[in-house]
Amino acid sequence: MTENVATFPVSEDNHDKQEQSPKDTGGIGGQRLMSFIERIERLEEEKTALMEDLKEVYAEAKGVGFDVKVMRKLVSLRKMDAEKRRETEELLDLYKSAIGMM
User: Fold this and answer.
1) What's the burial of 22, exposed, middle or buried (CB within 10 Å: 0-12/13-18/19+)?
2) Which DSSP letter does residue 14 get?
3) How far apart are CA 48 and CA 54, in angstroms?
4) Closest CA to 22 of 12, 10, 36, 42
5) Could you tell me the pTM of the whole model?
6) Residues 23-35: pLDDT tens digits?
7) How much is the CA Rg of the chain, to the nearest whole Å?
């Protein structure tokens, strides 16, 4: 029994473009550009892994009863320098007062 499978000729142009070596074109250093691209790709992979790790930590914290939204706000506040944090908190208090929340 034979399978009915169509075959197509493989041309030189159909090869995976990543297999071609980078070359300088139009004043652009191909090897240098490829180096940057590969570094960015590695960092994107690391970022994806780190984001997954953060997601798991927040899920674990939520699982033991912590409020994740409040934790995210605390992390955000801790990133600020003391003066910026004080200004933000004062402005928030002012706005809350202005709309009758205090």
Assistant:
1) middle
2) G
3) 10
4) 36
5) 0.62
6) 877 777 889 999 9
7) 27
